[in-house]
Design brief:
Length: 601
């Protein structure tokens, strides 16, 4: 029968020996995972560490090492030409992401452009970023970047799984036989009609607890396109069970047990990937939503992976470009905040504002109050306490909600089951909740989904977060490093909110000003469309200054377009600094980034 497993008490077991934190030279994309035994890293000193939060943080760096799979090999994705390698500079050598200018077709032009530059084409992503993966030397990439058809050439980077940490279905009010009034499932919210694409290591396509939920014909293997998206690693299967394992009398039940699964394999069977493979996954999902057949459409993308790096806007950063394109297509995206116990503001894709970012809660009894005490978490080899902020979880202002992420029991490869921990495991809880919301309200936008999640979430003191979507003055999660608690996702509350009263709208987000082009007595501006705050945009305002960062003056209101040419009292030879802000029925939003131009005759 399906089960909701709660780990037994492990208080009093001997404290494990753990290797000290010493980040490896190479920043591999790895699962946010746990190990099943103490780990010794060659060349690192072994220490016994006391049980305080400060001491527990010493081992956080180990969660970025692929402990279940052994060392990650320094090589490119399976099936790619002639071995691009992962260098200490945190890029995949001889592999590049090429973005083409508008109107240039990657399907038609990629091969010729690559050949002329002295390289070859890998993956092609016409929908994700209007570009392709280029294999070639740095000199070849520089030659390609000089081609007038090319907008940018960016180094390909390795991508990391956020390895597994599932017992939280009851804790987020998704399923509870003992209290059906508090159960989304028993109140009729089961995800029927919603579809979740899980970008991961694939799925065990024959798993008896998942096979009936998989849309086999819609899956994709970006690692080896000739094969089905079979999971030889286990991470993607574990995530899938938490999100949507059906109530079928077998194994476990997921948050949205009547939703459909589109498995997208972007990690190989050793847990390796890169941004190029991630973009392939995005491109596949976008192609399903652009094929003219609504019955194929994906509603939610679940992403239990990421990398820690600086990031750019929707135009200059290829991964952010893909995210923005998916957001514009109406796809809600959910991603793990990461397992390094640091601020999540640079962990992408979770840090992107268009993505719902998820931190992890330690919950041992599927109930609030912290009554289950503290104990050893076997799959982590570490101590944690009930109803506390998971000691490994990233935190910060970019995080939207939290979900259970410690000792989560779910499906795994070869028809099996396993207990794992991490924000990887918190993520599919929230992906399942979003599927419940979409099923309750098929027209739900990604912005509204995020707002409903936050507003309906549970704060540390047990109250509902409310209109601001925050838990200010409503308690704190023990061990939360920033003391600014995000709400715990509530499946029933979110589904009820999505199917009922719309969330309270807010001012729109800031657009990204992408260009300011000088002309004769004019400056032409272009910008991106930002999230609307839950209220349709009514237009934009253009602001101008003659000093960088100086006092700006309102030049003109603009309609709903994303371009404007300023000719109002523009003097040739004067440098002007521009910003743009969006307006909806609530209020104007914040000003965009600043760009300058100097018109001339």
């Amino acid at each position: 029968m399906d089960r909701l497993a709660v780990p037994s008490s492990t208080t009093g077991l001997p404290f494990p020996t753990i290797a000290e934190d010493n980040p490896p030279e190479r920043n591999y994309l790895v699962p946010i995972l746990s190990s099943h035994r103490p780990v010794s890293v060659p060349g690192h000193r072994i220490a016994r560490i006391a049980g305080s939060r400060l001491a527990r943080a010493v081992v956080i760096g180990l969660l970025l090492v692929p402990l279940l799979a052994g060392p990650v090999s320094a090589r490119g994705p399976v099936g790619t030409p002639a071995g691009p390698t992962v260098a200490a500079t945190h890029v995949v050598s001889d592999s590049w992401i090429v973005q083409l200018r508008p109107g240039v077709s990657p399907a038609a032009e990629a091969a010729g452009l690559a050949r002329a530059a002295g390289g070859s084409v890998g993956l092609v992503f016409p929908l994700a970023v209007n570009g392709f993966q280029f294999y070639g030397s740095a000199a070849a990439a520089q030659a390609l970047a000089r081609n007038p058809h090319v907008a940018s050439v960016t180094p390909d980077r390795p991508m990391h799984l956020i390895e597994s940490l599932p017992n939280g279905i009851e804790r987020i009010w998704a399923f509870d036989n003992d209290a059906p009034a508090n159960s989304a499932f028993h109140q009729g919210f089961r995800g029927n009609g919603a579809r979740i694409a899980i970008l991961d290591t694939g799925v065990d396509v024959d798993h008896p607890d998942l096979v009936g939920a998989i849309d086999h014909s819609l899956g994709k293997n970006c690692v080896n396109p000739a094969l089905p998206p079979e999971d030889g690693y286990g991470h993607g299967t574990h995530v899938s069970g938490t999100a949507l394992a059906p109530l079928n009398g077998v194994g476990v039940v997921g948050v949205a047990p009547e939703a459909r699964l589109v498995p997208v394999k972007i990690f190989d069977d050793a847990g390796n990937s890169s941004e190029a493979l991630v973009l392939c996954g995005f491109n596949h999902v976008l192609s399903l939503n652009a094929d003219g057949n609504p019955s194929n459409d994906v509603d939610v993308m679940s992403m239990s992976f990421g990398e820690d790096r600086s990031w750019g806007d929707c135009v200059t950063d290829p991964l952010h470009t893909a995210v923005c394109n998916a957001y514009a297509a109406g796809i809600a995206m959910v991603a793990g905040a990461g397992n390094s116990a640091v601020n999540a503001g640079t962990f992408v894709p979770a840090a992107f504002p268009e993505v719902i970012s998820v931190s992890a809660l330690a919950d041992f009894d599927a109930a609030r109050g912290g009554l289950a005490g503290c104990g050893l978490v076997p799959d982590l080899g570490w101590f944690d306490c009930d109803d506390t902020f998971a000691f490994f979880s990233n935190y910060g202002a970019s995080v939207d909600v939290m979900a259970p992420g410690v000792s989560i029991y779910s499906t795994t490869k070869n028809g099996g089951y396993a207990t794992q921990s991490g924000t990887s495991m918190a993520t599919p809880h929230v992906s399942g909740v979003v599927a419940l919301m979409v099923a309750a309200n098929p027209g739900l936008t990604p912005a509204a989904a995020a707002a409903f999640l936050r507003q309906s979430g549970e704060c540390p003191d047990g109250t509902v977060a409310g209109a601001d979507g925050a838990c200010t003055g409503q308690g704190t999660w023990a061990d939360d490093p920033d003391g600014a608690p995000e709400p715990l996702a509530n499946a029933l509350g979110a589904a009820l909110a999505a199917g009922g009263t719309p969330p309270t709208p807010t001012a729109p987000a800031a657009p990204t000003l992408t260009s300011a082009t000088a002309g004769d007595g004019s400056v032409a501006l272009a910008w991106t469309t930002p999230p609307d705050g839950g209220s349709p945009l009514t237009g934009y305002e253009v602001w101008r200054s003659t000093t960088a960062g100086g006092e700006a003056f309102h030049v003109a209101p603009v309609g709903l377009g994303t371009t404007y040419t300023d000719t109002t009292n523009v003097t040739n030879g004067t440098t002007y600094y521009y910003q743009v802000r969006a307006v909806n029925a609530v209020n104007p939003g914040p000003l965009s980034n600043e760009r300058s131009a100097t018109p001339a005759a």
